Amino acid sequence: MDDDNLAILSHLPIPLIKKIVSCIVVLKGNPAAQKDLIGGLCHHRFSRTIGEVAYINEAITARQAAIQLTPPGHPYLPIRLVNLTRSLHGRFEYTGDLKDVDTAILSMRKAVEATDPGDPSMAFRLSMLGNSLHLRFERKNNVSDLDNSISAYQQALRLLPPGDTQLQAVFLNDLGNSLYRRFQTTSRQDDIKDAISSYRRAVAIHTQLNIEASTFLNGLVSALHARFECSGDISDLKECIATLQRVISTTPSGDPRLATWYGNLGNVLQTRSVVKNSIDDINQAVRAMQKAIDFTPNDHAGVSVLLHNLSNALGVRFERTGDVQDLTQSIAAKRKAIARTPPGHSIFPSLLYNLGISLHQHHNVTGLKDSIDEAIHLQMRAIGMSPIGHVEIASRYRGLGISYLSRFGRTRQSSDLKEAISAHEKALALTPAGHPRLFAVWSALGNSYRERFHREGNLKDIELAISLQRKAVESTPIGHKDFPDTLCGLGESIWSRFQHKGAMEDIQESIRLLVKGTGLAMEGHVDLPRYLTVLGVAYHARYQRVEDLADVEEAISVFQRAVKVTRKDSADLPKRYDNLGIAFQNRFRRSREISDVEEAIAAQKKAIDLIPTGEESQLPNPFSNLGNSYHSRYEVSHTLEDLERSIAFKEKAISLTPDGHRSMPKLLNNLGNSLLLRFEDAGNFDDIDKAISLKERARGRLPPGHADTVFYVFNLGSAWQVRFQRTDNIADIDKAIATIQEAITLCPEVHASLPYLNHKLGQAFNSRFKHTEDEGDLKQAIASHRLAAISPYGSPLTRFHAAEAWAILSHSIDPAKSLEAFDTAILLLSLVAGLEQTVQRRHNQLVKTGVSDFSLLAAAASLSLGKSDKALEWLERGRCLVWNQINSLRSPLDDLRKHDEGSQEGATRVKGVGDGRVAGYG
What we know:
43 helices; TPR-like_helical_dom_sf; mainly alpha; Serine Threonine Protein Phosphatase 5, Tetratricopeptide repeat; about 900 residues; single chain
C-alpha cells in the first residue's frame, strides 16, 4: 500500500478502518496481517495528529494481537515486535506511562533473540533496544539502563554491515547521547570525552558523504556545553557558538531546522554571558531565542520549549541588569509555554517547576507574598506530577525547600521552616553519592538548619549546618558559578555560631569566607546584597570585640555597597539602610564627630520611609535604631527633643514587635538605656525604675549561652550603679557589683570591652567604699582598675582612666605601689592622643584627659617618695606630649600600632553596646 492510500485510510474512524481492512482480499484468512495493517494505519494517524490517544491505543492493541497470532520462529515475528516497540514509544512520549517503556524493552529483547546473529537487521534491532533502554533511564534514573543502552549501541556498531555509513552515523549519534547522559549522572570524564568523539565521527561521516550534517550537531553542541560546565574551558563554548553560527549561515532561510539551531545558539550564548558577565552575549541569546520562536509554526508542539528557553534567557538578563520588565516577560513566556502544553505531557512538570523558580525571584525582588505562595504551589504540583525516580526530582525538592525558606524569612511561620527542612532532606536522600550537584544540596540543607538554629537556639543545628557546608565548599569546583554561594553560605553559618558562642576564630573565618565569596560573585548576582550585608555585620561585630577602627570603616564601606547593589524596589532595602545607619552610629561613638551621627539618622530615616504602609510590624528594628541615633546625638547636643525622640521611637519599636520575637531583648534594653539617660539628667525615679525593669526583662528573654549576654548583664549592673548614686541605698550598689562581676565572668578573655568592665567594677567598689569605709572594697577597686589598665586589649582612653584611678587610690593607702600605676598612665597618654586623626582632635583629647594636671600629680607623688628623677621624667613627658604629637603627624598609624598591638583608640560606652549591635540582615 503506497503512502497516499495509507494517509487516506488512516484518517478514517477506527471502526471504518477495521471494516475496510477486513474486506481486503489479499489479507483474507491472514488475521495476523490484518492486525498488522490496522496497527500501522492507527499508528500513522496518531503520529500525524498528536493527541488522538484512541488511535495509538488501537495501534498497540492490534500489534500485540498480531504478535500473539505469529508462531515462534516465523520470519515476521521480529518485525512485528519492532513495530510494537515503535507504537509503545509513541504512546510513552505522549502519556509518560513507564509501563509502555518496560513493555518496549521486553519486545525488543524478544526481537533480538528471534533474530539470527548474521541477519543484517540485527544491528538495527540492537539500536532499537538501546533506544528503549535510554528512554527508561530518563524516567527511572537507573544507571544500569544506560550501561545496557551503551552496550547495545556498541554491539550494533560492531555488527553493522560494511558500507552502511549513513546508519553508522545514526548509531554513533545514539551512542553519543547515552554516553553524554551517563556523564551527566556519574561525572565520569571518559564518558563526555567519548560522547564528543562519537558525535564528531557522526558529523564527519555525513560531511564526507556530502550529506548535510546538521542533524547530529545538537548532540555535539550539548556535549561540548556540558564539558565546559565541568571543566570551565571556554574553548568548548567557543566551538559550540562557531559550529552553530556556521550551520545557521549555510541553512536556507525557510528550513524548519533553523528554529533548533537558533534555540541552541541562544542557550550557549546565555551560558557564555554568565561566564564572561557579558551583557552583549545575553542580548544576543535573547534575540536568537526569539528568532527560534519566529521560525517555528505557531501550532508546533516545540513552541512551548522555545518559549521556556526564552523565558530563562530573559531571567538571566534580569539578574544582570535588574530590569524588572525582563523578569515580567520571563514569567509571561513561561505562562504561555504552560498554556500550550497538555497537562499529561512529559515536560509539563518541568514547565510548572521553572515558573515557580521565576515567581520565587519575583518575590525576592518585590516582597509580594502572592508570588512566593504561587511559586510553592507550582513547585509542589511539579513534584506531585514527577514520576518516582525522575532524574530531576531531587533538584525539584531542593528548589521547593529554598522557596519555603524564603517564605519563612518573610512570615517567620515555623511550618514554613519545617517544610523547607523536610524538602531539603528529601533532596539529599534522593541525590546519589558523587552526583555533580550534591554540593548544592548540602549547602541548601545547611542554610535551613542555620535558620532553625536562629529560631530554636539548638547548637546541634548550627554544627550540622557548618559540617554540611564545609563539605559543599570542598566539593564545589573552583570557578563554578555557584562557588560564591557555597563560600558565603558557610561564612554565614560560622558567623551565626560566633553570635552564639563568641569564639574569635569563628568571626575571623567567617569574614575570610565572606570576603572571598563576595569577591567572586558577579555584580548582578541575586544574593550579593545579602552576602555583603552579612559581611558588614561580621566586620561590625569584630570591631566591637577588638575595637580596630579599620573594621568599622570596612563595615560602613560594605554596607554602602550593599545599599548600592540592592534594587530600589527590594523589600530588603530598609534593613540595609538601617545597618548602614548603625555602622555610622558606632563610628560616632568612637569619633564623636557629629557628622557621623547625622549620617546615621539620615540612613535610618530612609529605612523607615521605605517600609510599606501597614508592614511596620515586620521591621521594628529601624525604629529602635533610629532611637539609638537620637540618643547618641543627645549626648553631644543635650537637646531634650533628641532624647524624647529617642524614647518615642524605641517605644514604638516595642509596640510593633510580637512578645516572643528574638529582637525583643535588644529593644527592651535599648529603651532602658534612654530612660536611664533621662534619669541621669532629670532625676525622675520612675525612669530609673522602669529602666531597670526593662533591662531585667531583656536579660530574662535571652536564650542560654547567647553571645551578647555579657552586655545585657553589664547594662543591668550599670543601671543599679546609677540608681545608687541618687539613693545611697547600699542594696543598690551591692546589686550593681554582683551583676557587673557576673558580666566579667561571662566575657571572653580576649575582648575589647573587658578593660571597660573591670574599670566600671572598680568604680562600683570605690562607690561602696565611700559609703561603708570597708578597706576591702578599696583594695577590690584598686585591683579592678589595675586589671583594666594593664590589659593589652581595648580602648587606650578607658585604660588611661583606669590607670589614673588605680594610681590615685593606691597612693591613698600605699604611695610606693602607686608608681607603677602612674608610669602606666603616662605611657597610655601618648596612645590616647596618638591615634586621633587630626591635629585639633589630638589636642582636644589631651586637654580632656588633663595631661598637665595629671603630670603634676604624678610628679608630686614621685617627689613625696624621694624619686626626683622619675618626677622630672614625668613632668618632661607631659610638657612635651602635645608638641611631639603636632610634630609627628606624618608618623604612620602602623608605627603606633607596633608599639601596642590592639590598642586603637575607641572609648566605647559598654552600656550602649546593645544599642550598637547590627539589628539583623536581609
